[in-house]
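Recap quiz, item 2
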Amino acid sequence: MNFDLGPDQRDAAGGARDFYRGSASPAAARAALEGGPVEPGHEALAGIGYLGITVPESAGGAGGSLLDLAVVAEQGGAVLAGPSLVTAARAAVLLAEHPDLAAQLADGSAAFAVLDGPVTGSAPSIDAAGATLFLGLDDGALVVGEGEATPGRPLDATRGLAGVRLTSRRVLAEDAGALWARARQVAAVVLAAEDLGAADAAVQLAVDYAKEREAFGRRIGSYQAVKHMLVDAWVGVDQLRSLVWWAAWAADAAPDELPLAASAAKAHAAEVLERAAETCVQVHGGIGYTWEHDAHLYWRRAKVDRLLLGDAAEHLDAVARLAVAGALG
Amino acid sequence: MDFDDTPEEADFRAGVRKTLEEHAGELLHAGAGEDVVDARTHEAEMRRTQRVLHEAGLIGITWPREYGGQGGTLVQQAIVQQELARAGVPPLVNHIGLGMCGPTVIAHGSDEQRSRYLPRLLRADDVWCQLFSEPASGSDLAALRTTAVRDGDDWVVNGQKVWTTLAHVADFGILLTRTDPEKPKHAGLTMFVVDVHAPGVTVRPLRQMVGSAGFNEVFFDDVRIPDAERLGEPGEGWRVALTTLMNERVAIGGAGSDLGLPVETLAAHARERLPRLDPERQVLARQAVGRAVVAALATRYTGYRRFTVLSQGGLPGPEASAGKLAGTAAAKLVADAGVRLLGDDAVYAATADGDDTWQRTQGYVPGLAIAGGTDQVLRNILGERVLGLPPEPRLDKDPGGRR
Ligand SMILES: Cc1cc2nc3c(=O)[nH]c(=O)nc-3n(C[C@H](O)[C@H](O)[C@H](O)COP(=O)(O)OP(=O)(O)OC[C@H]3O[C@@H](n4cnc5c(N)ncnc54)[C@H](O)[C@@H]3O)c2cc1C
């Protein structure tokens, strides 16, 4: 057994960390709430090749594994980057038989979004606000088309959420239900990976503050009420990393395990990020409740992500059904 | 990244499996979902089971060959552990000896002690216990008061230990005592091997909250221990005890095995019981099952990460405490989901046909959160040693553990 990242994945994570730290930040996420651009933005992500990590080399991508993508996505999550690599990974699965479109995904010449719910009026879908081409499931068929996006007032502007009505559509594949389900599982894994990065960053922010801030003549991190809250948040993050790695690995290496692993990771991610972000606000006290502080940007991400691609209740139900059906072996 | 055995590991596993099949008839097997066997009622079979396994080469995998061990690796040890669980062999009678006492003797004992004790421990000729906790010192172990006073070639021990698992069937124990009450509390301690059958040792079983007797109080009245039974130097007892405690945290929830009942057992139980519940209750029960499965898998896969570090030659760090903390939380969710699936039987101590698997595991969980470091103590360790948060101010640096 070797349950660890390989040297190439470690290097890729290090590179992604540098790239994202240089091109996105919680400050940018704050500015986006006031109308600023989402950073690093679609063009920069296409430029560095992150939109094509799992697109085959023959279609201009890197031909990498979902785990390769997940370690990069984690770094994006840490600085609340957008657009999300969720869309890149999900579209790459859906476009496996359409290299021309996959090439446009990888090189960024089209900005894709994948629609959840009916294509005549979709549920709020990730990065739909800035997309030029939409993928959807229409009566069991995979379709691509142009559409009209209607964003709501953003709670987390980095997610680019909008409901979409398709204005044109072309069928890419009939009977695409199984493909669609797999793509959604892959998307859930990548969302969990971004949540992992965000949760880790939020806990670190809070731990750093607890080491400095003093009250009643002691640093607040020495109080058990604070210390134990931080430990519980950290343990959650540490465990989420294991589920994310397992699920991302399974997508390529053990597809039978993907449904269980993806739902486990997504359910856990929703709760871990929420706890990490809430702990981060709480540990900071009054300053943590200000617009200027970064804590609320992680909190916003948590409150939104937990409901995207199925909430914890939906995924816990899926985990239970799969376990009962024998998925644990 | 992979979860497969290497070819050597696969060979090793196949060998272990074959050995276990060959000896199946001679081994004690746990009933469906049984996680603990009462050493009082099954002592002879439990000792025999360990002896048979030892003769088959499956005990003391990582221990030195010269003392009856196999000179093997941690990975092989974990494989044996997994295969024993798979074959339904309950925890070994000497699990404390194998997990905690033996490694302490290996690390700190004399050659003479190692040759005398370890082979017998491995064969379960002797059962061992860990005599650390006292009425006034559990979490704050270094505050202990049992004294050992030098008298010629012997030490004379007086005091009381408590919550001592297995003392009622044990032959030997590792005993932590205070030998210098004038020193600050961590500095005045010394560790010994004690013969539990020696004159002046009295063992009184204590009834645990679930009704059975798993632990004991142990009294020492002028018990003489030869100086040759010391483990480590006088005053070095704390350092010796840390060896034991580190091994304990790895033994409990270190490398990816479930504390409490395995989550596969819950899945099988849910398969049978879910359809018997009202449809609305099924929805709620599936939430509980899903939550338990996620918690158990998260703990298991985190254990695999730690295990990978060990198998590459790394040492267990303070993160091992997270495995026990999270494993305990997962065990509670698993037990709770299992009990809820029982429907009306959940309010009784057993089902109508007498099966108490889930009720028993429910009763076992509160002990998990206390034994081997309470949840709170583990959070302190993680907060201070992993996250680097400042310690609490302390008021206990006076000699002899007195305030
Ligand atoms: C099933 C079982 C088996 C056991 N087997 C053995 C054995 O074989 N050998 C042996 O030596 N011992 C054994 N023990 C004892 C066990 O190690 C102790 O019970 C444990 O360390 C707690 O000590 P205590 O009981 O004195 O509780 P205390 O230390 O008095 O703790 C009481 C409460 O205070 C909390 N607390 C204490 N200190 C702190 C702190 N610094 N910060 C925050 N909270 C704190 C604890 O978390 C707990 O909730 C066993 C216990 C159980 C339940």
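Residues 177-212 of chain A form the longest helix (36 residues).
The pocket of flavin-adenine dinucleotide is lined by residues A 224; B 129-130, 132-133, 138-140, 163-165, 215, 367, 370-371, 374, 376-377, 380 (CB under 6 Å).
End of item.
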